[in-house]
Amino acid sequence: MTTLTETTHPGGFLVWEAFRDYTRETVTIAAGTLEPGTVLGKTTASGKYAAHNPAATDGTETAVAVLWGKADASAGDVAAVALIRGPAIVNRHDLVFTGTLSEPEIAAAHAALVAVGILVR
């Protein structure tokens, strides 16, 4: 019998949002193949989004958004929808971080999301 594995769903991390036309926007993803719920940072120089990286110094070290659906930017920039502001509440267990983050780094990312109105519960 084949074993099926359910992957993340677009918007599956979202618990509540006030106004979807206000909280979500189409953004440009600069690099990587990212899953729904990936925490994003914004590159200061280009204004493009990429996976949050606390070790970076290009702007992506600060968590500012959450990717709505899968985005494959492995061959170049792609447009994708992201939750970029609140009021909204997301499930912390459904957020995706790239790399291996420490608990303090995850807590800092959660706090940065709260700063833009995205509550992490």
Give a brief outline of the structure.
The protein is about 15% helix and about 35% strand.
Can you describe this structure?
- With 121 residues, the protein is an alpha+beta fold.
- The protein has a single domain, classed as Head decoration protein D (Virus Head Decoration Protein, Chain: A), CATH 2.40.300.10.
- The chain contains 2 helices and 10 strands.
- The strands form 3 sheets. The protein has a 5-stranded antiparallel sheet. It has a 3-stranded mixed sheet with strand order 1-9-10.
- It is globular.
- The termini are far apart.
Return Rg in Å.
14 Å
Write down the overall geometry. globular
Question: Major sheet: size, sense and barrel closure?
Answer: 5 strands, antiparallel
Within CATH, the superfamily carries the name Head decoration protein D
Looking at the overall shape, the CATH architecture is Beta Barrel
* CATH fold title: Virus Head Decoration Protein, Chain: A
Main attributes?
2 helices; 14% helix; Virus Head Decoration Protein, Chain: A; single chain; alpha+beta
